[in-house]
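The freezer alarm interrupted the setup, so I double-checked each line after restarting. Inputs confirmed:
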Amino acid sequence: MKKLFFLMVMTVLLMLTAFGASAYENEEFYKGSEGTTINVFNWGEYISDTYEDGMLDVNSEFEKVTGIKVNYVTYESNEDMYPKIKNGGASYDIIIPSDYMIERMIAENMLKKIDVNALPNYRYIAEEYKNMYFDPNNEYSVPYNVGMVGLIYNTKMVEERPTSWNALWDERYAGKILMIDNPRDAFAVAQKILGYSLNSTDEKELSDVAQLLVEQKPLLQGYVMDEIFNKMESGEAAMVPYYVGDFVLMQQVNPDLDFVYPKEGVNIFVDSICIPKCAQNYDAALKYINFLLDPEIAMSNAFYIGYATPNTGVLEHPDYAEMKENKYLYPAEDEMPDVEYFHNLPQETLLMFSDLWNEIRIYGTDNTHIYVGFGVVAAIAIGFGVKKAVTKKRREYWYEFPES
Amino acid sequence: MKKSSLMKKLTAAPYLVWAAIFIIVPLIFVLIYSVTDADGSFTLQYISDIGKYKDVMLNSIWLGFIATVISLVIAYPLAYIMARTTANVQRTMMILVMLPMWMNLLIRTYSMMILMQDTGIINSVLTYFNLPNLHMINTQGAVVLGMVYNYIPYMILPLYSIMSKMDMNLIEAAGDLGANKIVTFKDIILPLTLPGIASGFTMVFVPSVSTFYISKKLGGNTFSLIGDVIEMQFKSANNYNLGAALSLVLMVLIIICMMVMNRFTGDDDDGGVLI
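Predicted 3D structure, all chains:
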């Protein structure tokens, strides 16, 4: 009896593993790196990490299929990621930068080549996302997500549907406006209002842009990145320029939120998977990239992250049909906003960016009360010191002439 | 004799090595970075750029100072009461003081943000009772509150330890000699606890001035403290040289502040308190 039970359990287990194994294409591609570790450096909230609602925990699935341990670390922006790779000290096998950052990293010889033809799942990448401007021969990057920046707003708090980026300068919403805490994206909003290119290197144009952002500062609730989720979902803030994919997720939590692509135009971006020069487990990195392209995995990610996917295996999947209807993720041809990609900028423009951004961030500290405060403190201190000196003198005098 | 001095040297060695590797060498790096540019050649440009950040720096020192004074005002009587109670109560109060420190500073600060936001827990409760809402988040007051909340244990502990060692007979003697409560406090208790005040002051003031996370979460980033600016240089602006120059100047300013502070606590011939 016991034996029979044992046999039954074994069969069930075997069947389970068999099913598990058949879930992914080209299983044999994932063999050969068992027992090694891969370091993945990705944006926050940028991979499916749950088994809820039919999604898959991508990293645990990868560990199960390949036997490679995934060491997963996140960053908040391209600018946060770049110095960590540039200055060494950390070795990552996978990074997922945006277009302009890839262009910069290629120019600075920071990326390893990827033979995309060796990746069986590369065939799922839609033609329109191959040969992108930042990687014309598909040598360094594999597209992961596509998105645009638009204006997220709370319909309960904003009176009429905004159509322009100028809404972020609307005094009626003072204290309820959030700004994205990332120089490139924040500048982009002001650049579009002024009708400048997102890739302007003109000093005059950039300082105009900074001026506009300084004018906006008194109306702001804050400069934020990942806290945007919390602040918008709870109704703490009314408006923020942010990435469309994150809007899709926020709207699922707070249905009062809506989205608009302002008429002045928006930034479009492609985030692609790359292998940095510091990678120490190249084979595992290739396996990881291929795994992310697997339609099953890519669909989990598409649901979890909420961005548009370049993966045809997902786009044609019946389960994804509803998501594909989303007019913000996949706008119809006639509703497509004016879009512009970021390009890598020359070093002196980047420096100008960071200087201006510093200036915007430190602007507006009113210091009169501080000077007064320090004055009072100093006066008390001096008074105290004088009193002490006088007492001391008097005591010394008394010691010398005790009779007096 | 010789043997014991060798012993002394040997026992001090682990700390000396530690200090050399993790304190001296990094300081030298800060110094080098602050006087070189991105290519590594000598420049004083970053140090001279500091003028731009004068207001931010003053503001940070001011807020740190306010937070320290508030901590002192709250902690002093508390530490005194603690030192006077029975051993059991002391233990319980000690645990209560330490309890928040079992949690990470980041989590504590993040939860304060959720408490204080306009749609946060405090305001939800106020709304529930039909009371007017308070706007707390993203103000300098919220940042100071965050500093006090996070660093007050560092004020309580040194005060408590010095007060529990204070000789009660002195206070009694003062009373016998006719000193009233105010005179006893001014001439006996305060001078005896000055070293505790000084070390508590240092331990709250220094982290408050250089904090970045607290101001980021509770100040909403619309006004920056110097810690934020420095963090930005290292984290995203990739301008290590400016970051190092700012850190250097901040360090010098803090040392000056501490020296001024020590003038008030040190010359009462108990010997000064180390910075």
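Quick read of the result. Residues 2-34 of chain B form the longest helix (33 residues).
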